[in-house]
Design a protein that fits this description.
Oligomer: single chain
Largest sheet: 9 strands, mixed
CATH topology: Rossmann fold
Distance between the termini: 47 Å
CATH superfamily: Alpha/Beta hydrolase fold, catalytic domain
Shape: globular
CATH architecture: 3-Layer(aba) Sandwich
Number of helices: 11
Number of domains: 1
Strand content: 15-25%
Number of strands: 9
Strand order of the largest sheet: 1-2-4-3-5-6-7-8-9
Helix content: 40-55%
Order of helices and strands: HHEEEHEHEHEHHHEHEHHE
Length: about 325
């Protein structure tokens, strides 16, 4: 009987410790869950030296042991490789060899004292491909990552086989929010950002909101430099997109309140022969929150032979 009570007391103590850890650092706990899930699905985490800096990267090969078709994923502002969490193993299961680096300043990569401009992150991607011995690959970018991917395709077309952009920045549009929305300094600011990123925001518990604020403030200077560089207009692609000569898919959340669908339609109209896909009911976080239609549209486009030209498709809103 005494052994039973000791075991019960140990279990209660363990639960109390776990609860305390979750309360004080819920994002760390969430990160461990994501990374464990990726590891279980065969997604490898590693570091590579790029331009003298340590870059973190995820890599997922097809589970059947084949070489797979190289596919590079470029994340957006304030994001990291983990944000591709659902798509990484799903794309590998479809026969792609997927690479997802954390850009300089983001995730677990180094954060040197640099400008964090689109051009600089583009060069980081070029040099990352060289470090990973990728002579060429399909390239997909989300939000700021879409901007980087489009500029990469313009400047280094030999590196890109086909291009996919999800809810991409890179062209001018009247912003509904000010730049400070990306660096919230209180729980209300975090909720405001969520309200813009997703059409179905859930109220955040205060302890989670405070953890988001703490993490965001640690990298606020990087985000600020990235936003400042983007807003100076030097890297805008409005009058350059016609130069993209690679098969391109423009995929958008139909309810994106951060970068409106109209911006995606202009990108589509500007890139000769590009295809357009819209996922109804989804917002700016479409590749994460609506990853199933994102996966279907991406694989359909990348596998099409001959390459799709001018195709249009609308995916219904995923069931909640």
């Amino acid at each position: 009987m005494r052994r039973f009570w000791r075991g019960l007391a140990g279990l209660v103590l363990l639960l109390l410790i776990a609860g305390a850890v979750f309360y004080w650092n819920p994002l760390w706990v969430n990160d461990q869950q994501i990374r464990y899930s990726l590891w279980r699905h065969g997604v490898r985490s590693s570091y590579v030296e790029v331009d003298g800096h340590r870059l973190h990267s995820y890599e997922a090969a097809p589970p059947d042991g084949s070489a797979g078709t190289p596919l590079l994923l470029v994340h957006g502002l304030g994001a990291r490789g983990e944000d591709w969490g659902a798509l990484l193993p799903a794309l590998a299961a479809k026969g792609f060899h997927v690479y997802a680096p954390d850009l300089l300043g983001y995730g677990r990569s180094d954060s040197p004292d640099i400008s964090y401009s689109i051009s600089l992150e583009e060069q980081t991607v070029v040099d990352y491909m060289q470090a990973m011995h990728l002579a060429h690959a399909h390239v997909a970018g989300w939000s700021m990552g879409g901007w980087i991917a489009m500029k990469l395709t313009l400047d280094h077309p030999q590196l890109v086989d086909r291009l996919v952009v999800y809810d991409s920045a890179g062209v001018y549009f009247p912003a509904a929010e000010t730049a400070d929305i990306f660096t919230p300094n209180d729980v209300a600011g975090v909720q405001r950002l969520l309200n813009v990123l997703t059409p179905h925001p859930k109220p955040l518990p205060d302890f989670v909101g405070r953890a988001v604020v703490r993490r965001n403030q640690q990298m606020a200077w990087v985000i600020h430099r990235s936003v400042t560089a983007m807003m100076d207009g030097r890297d805008l692609l409005d009058f350059k997109l016609h130069g993209i000569q690679r098969p391109t898919l423009v995929m958008w959340g139909g309810r994106d309140d951060l970068i409106p669908l109209e911006a995606g339609q202009r990108i589509h109209a500007s890139i000769p022969g590009s295809s357009m896909a819209v996922v109804e009911g989804c917002g700016h976080l479409m590749p994460a929150e609506c990853w199933q239609p994102a996966l279907e549209g991406t694989v359909e486009f990348l596998r099409a032979e001959p390459a799709m030209v001018g195709a249009k498709r609308v995916f219904p809103a995923p069931a909640e």
